[in-house]
């Protein structure tokens, strides 16, 4: 086995990577090395991603290497271990303070060779003066990386003029964003502006100023760059969203302030007066936007305040409303969107400011969002961060797949929202037992005065109380308290001490639900009300005021719908009498395929030979 492994290793490849690019292309298109060390590096920022440092050997030489975060899965899957053998499918060679460092972008573990003790006695690569070192400094990929072809850095005398495809600084070579750190000095990155913020100002007791930021993307990762004051004036108009630039030091690489960034990078850039920024016309190699989508159905498993990317079909578009910040007392424009996807779930996503007022996408468009914050309002909700971005009908496979699904079947589907389950059972991820109405009453669920009971029930709506189905709520973010009509055209929230020009109506409904064993009265709030009625409470109130026939038809359409309800049962007091209150925490439309399989399984239990 040792001889077989030795014969697989491409001896001399590491030296060629850093010193002989011509030989590298000719003799070592996909280098094979032994991993002789794997070390976990602690993240430099709170919440930062794990980083792994490797030592790779080709028997002749060894080199320090850093695993790009996009390749961390080979460690998490237990494949990359000390002594294993690997194919380097995509990588970037760098020299930092005279040290050779290899950034591994894509790696394959040759599991059939297993793990062994270090083969041979490899030595460190010979240090040379920087001008003598000619690393293969463009990403090289055996199978291509995002479709790239191997490319060599042109010699300085053959470089085109600035903005024609190469940086003018001959002292720098192109780094991957993944390889930037405070210890790298002479560097140039080639990156696309995936997001450009508006200019923001601040006013404090001792200072005031302005700033803007851009998110920069290359094939290895993303990083945020910020320009303050003079650099804001100097560079703001130069950067255009979607364009590609060479950006060269001097430019500070600082620890990332995670509270202001949604990018998975432990560092960020601060533009300086002498930072060199040149537009690049050769843009094909640089990806457009890198998404890491989470499905709407999977949101229940995502922690609150996490930052995710999401794509969905635009089901509803609300009007622009204003809320007043509790801290600054300034008004903010917001617009709520409802997205659905092929998991059968919907979610409300809020966009803000100019993005909200300028939003003009039509319902049923496919919209991709990068950088949304997960909230737990109504179970799960999303909010587009100021550093996030949005693309309508993007030309990506995920969008084409969703469009095909929606046109073929999704348009007629019903969608569930995520329930905001409370209590130990939900927190522990346990499924609530499915009960009939008879079992609920027989087992006296909810009769305990100490703790509530949680259960699921499959039932059909037979009646909805129409006299009071909603209440006027405060528009302030996260409040939702009832507001009072002052009589002068405004609505007052005592909690926020604010008068609003209008309220937001929210459902508070009573449903009579039956199954084959009996009936229960259930109480539900806004998310479930939207699912049952198929419209917002504001829309239903508008029908009540202007078209009562249409309102009655909406209630009729909601009757006879069948759902699986997640219910919280708890005893409370009403007019000095004890009663059990059944509160709906969430509802899911019946999945007839799943139900048919369950029935088939039950029939098999009664099968008589």
TrEMBL record:
<keyword id="KW-0863">Zinc-finger</keyword>
<feature type="domain" description="Replication protein A OB">
    <location>
        <begin position="296"/>
        <end position="393"/>
    </location>
</feature>
<dbReference type="GO" id="GO:0006310">
    <property type="term" value="P:DNA recombination"/>
</dbReference>
<feature type="domain" description="Replication factor-A protein 1 N-terminal">
    <location>
        <begin position="9"/>
        <end position="111"/>
    </location>
</feature>
<comment type="function">
    <text>As part of the replication protein A (RPA/RP-A), a single-stranded DNA-binding heterotrimeric complex, may play an essential role in DNA replication, recombination and repair. Binds and stabilizes single-stranded DNA intermediates, preventing complementary DNA reannealing and recruiting different proteins involved in DNA metabolism.</text>
</comment>
<dbReference type="GO" id="GO:0000781">
    <property type="term" value="C:chromosome, telomeric region"/>
</dbReference>
<protein>
    <recommendedName>
        <fullName>Replication protein A subunit</fullName>
    </recommendedName>
</protein>
<keyword id="KW-0479">Metal-binding</keyword>
<dbReference type="GO" id="GO:0003697">
    <property type="term" value="F:single-stranded DNA binding"/>
</dbReference>
<keyword id="KW-0235">DNA replication</keyword>
<dbReference type="InterPro" id="IPR012340">
    <property type="entry name" value="NA-bd_OB-fold"/>
</dbReference>
<feature type="domain" description="Replication factor A C-terminal">
    <location>
        <begin position="454"/>
        <end position="599"/>
    </location>
</feature>
<dbReference type="GO" id="GO:0007004">
    <property type="term" value="P:telomere maintenance via telomerase"/>
</dbReference>
<dbReference type="Pfam" id="PF01336">
    <property type="entry name" value="tRNA_anti-codon"/>
</dbReference>
<dbReference type="GO" id="GO:0006281">
    <property type="term" value="P:DNA repair"/>
</dbReference>
<dbReference type="InterPro" id="IPR013955">
    <property type="entry name" value="Rep_factor-A_C"/>
</dbReference>
<dbReference type="InterPro" id="IPR031657">
    <property type="entry name" value="REPA_OB_2"/>
</dbReference>
<dbReference type="GO" id="GO:0006260">
    <property type="term" value="P:DNA replication"/>
</dbReference>
<dbReference type="InterPro" id="IPR004591">
    <property type="entry name" value="Rfa1"/>
</dbReference>
<dbReference type="InterPro" id="IPR004365">
    <property type="entry name" value="NA-bd_OB_tRNA"/>
</dbReference>
<feature type="domain" description="OB">
    <location>
        <begin position="187"/>
        <end position="271"/>
    </location>
</feature>
<keyword id="KW-0539">Nucleus</keyword>
<keyword id="KW-0238">DNA-binding</keyword>
<dbReference type="GO" id="GO:0008270">
    <property type="term" value="F:zinc ion binding"/>
</dbReference>
<dbReference type="InterPro" id="IPR007199">
    <property type="entry name" value="Rep_factor-A_N"/>
</dbReference>
<dbReference type="InterPro" id="IPR047192">
    <property type="entry name" value="Euk_RPA1_DBD_C"/>
</dbReference>
<feature type="region of interest" description="Disordered">
    <location>
        <begin position="128"/>
        <end position="172"/>
    </location>
</feature>
<dbReference type="GO" id="GO:0005662">
    <property type="term" value="C:DNA replication factor A complex"/>
</dbReference>
<dbReference type="Pfam" id="PF04057">
    <property type="entry name" value="Rep-A_N"/>
</dbReference>
<comment type="similarity">
    <text>Belongs to the replication factor A protein 1 family.</text>
</comment>
<dbReference type="Pfam" id="PF16900">
    <property type="entry name" value="REPA_OB_2"/>
</dbReference>
<comment type="subunit">
    <text>Component of the heterotrimeric canonical replication protein A complex (RPA).</text>
</comment>
<keyword id="KW-0862">Zinc</keyword>
<dbReference type="Pfam" id="PF08646">
    <property type="entry name" value="Rep_fac-A_C"/>
</dbReference>
């Amino acid at each position: 086995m040792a001889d077989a492994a030795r014969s697989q290793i491409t001896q001399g490849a590491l030296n060629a990577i850093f010193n002989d690019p011509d030989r590298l292309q000719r003799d070592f298109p996909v280098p094979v090395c032994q991993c002789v060390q794997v070390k976990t590096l602690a993240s430099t920022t709170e919440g930062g991603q794990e980083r792994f440092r490797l030592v790779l050997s080709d028997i002749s030489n060894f080199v320090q290497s850093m695993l790009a975060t996009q390749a961390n899965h080979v460690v998490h899957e237990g494949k990359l271990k000390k002594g294993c053998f690997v194919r380097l499918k995509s990588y970037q060679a760098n020299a930092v303070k005279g040290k050779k460092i290899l950034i591994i972008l894509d790696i394959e573990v040759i599991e059939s060779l297993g793990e062994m003790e270090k083969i041979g006695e490899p030595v460190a690569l010979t240090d040379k003066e920087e001008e003598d070192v000619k690393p293969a400094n463009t990403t090289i990929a055996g199978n291509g990386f995002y479709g790239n072809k191997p490319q060599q850095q042109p010699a300085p005398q053959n470089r085109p003029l600035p903005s024609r495809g190469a940086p003018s600084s001959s002292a720098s070579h192109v780094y991957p964003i993944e390889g930037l750190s405070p210890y790298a000095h002479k560097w140039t990155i080639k990156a696309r502006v995936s997001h450009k913020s508006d200019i923001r100002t601040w006013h404090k007791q001792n200072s005031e100023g302005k700033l803007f930021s851009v998110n920069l993307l290359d094939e290895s990762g993303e990083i945020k760059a910020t320009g303050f004051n003079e650099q804001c004036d100097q560079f703001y108009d130069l950067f255009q969203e979607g364009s590609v630039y060479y950006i060269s030091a001097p430019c500070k690489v600082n620890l990332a302030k995670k509270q202001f960034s949604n990018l998975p990078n432990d560092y960020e850039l601060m533009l300086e007066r002498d930072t060199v920024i040149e537009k690049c016309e050769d843009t094909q190699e640089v990806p457009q936007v890198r998404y890491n989508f989470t499905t709407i159905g999977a949101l229940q498993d995502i922690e609150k305040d996490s930052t995710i990317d999401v794509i969905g079909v635009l089901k509803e578009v609300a009007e622009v409303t204003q809320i007043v910040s509790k801290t600054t007392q300034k008004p903010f424009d917001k617009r709520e969107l409802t997205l659905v996807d092929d998991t059968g779930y919907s979610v409300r996503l809020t966009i803000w400011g100019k993005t909200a007022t300028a939003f003009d996408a039509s319902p049923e468009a496919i919209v991709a969002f990068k950088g949304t914050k997960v909230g737990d309002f109504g179970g799960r909700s999303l909010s587009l961060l100021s550093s996030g971005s949005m693309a309508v009908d993007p030309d990506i496979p995920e969008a084409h797949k969703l469009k095909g699904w929606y046109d073929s079947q999704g348009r007629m589907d019903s969608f569930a929202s995520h329930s905001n389950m409370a209590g130990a059972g939900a927190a522990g991820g346990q499924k609530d037992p499915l009960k009939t109405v008879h079992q609920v009453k027989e087992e006296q669920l909810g009769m305990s005065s100490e703790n509530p009971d949680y259960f699921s029930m499959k039932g059909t709506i037979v009646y909805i109380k129409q006299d009071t189905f909603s209440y006027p709520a405060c528009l302030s973010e996260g409040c939702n308290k009832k507001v009072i009509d002052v009589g002068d055209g405004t609505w007052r929230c005592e909690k926020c001490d604010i008068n609003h020009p209008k309220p937001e109506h929210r459902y508070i409904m009573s449903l009579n639900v039956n199954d084959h064993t009996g009936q229960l009265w259930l109480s539900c709030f806004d998310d479930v009300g939207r699912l049952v009625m198929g419209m917002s409470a504001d829309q239903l109130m508008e029908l009540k005021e202007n078209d009562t026939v249409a309102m009655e038809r909406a209630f009729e359409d909601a009757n006879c719908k069948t759902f699986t309800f997640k219910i919280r049962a708890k005893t409370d007091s009403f007019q000095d009498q004890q009663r059990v209150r059944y509160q709906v925490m969430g509802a899911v439309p019946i999945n007839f395929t799943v139900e048919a399989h369950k029935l088939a399984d039950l029939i098999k239990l009664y099968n008589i030979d």
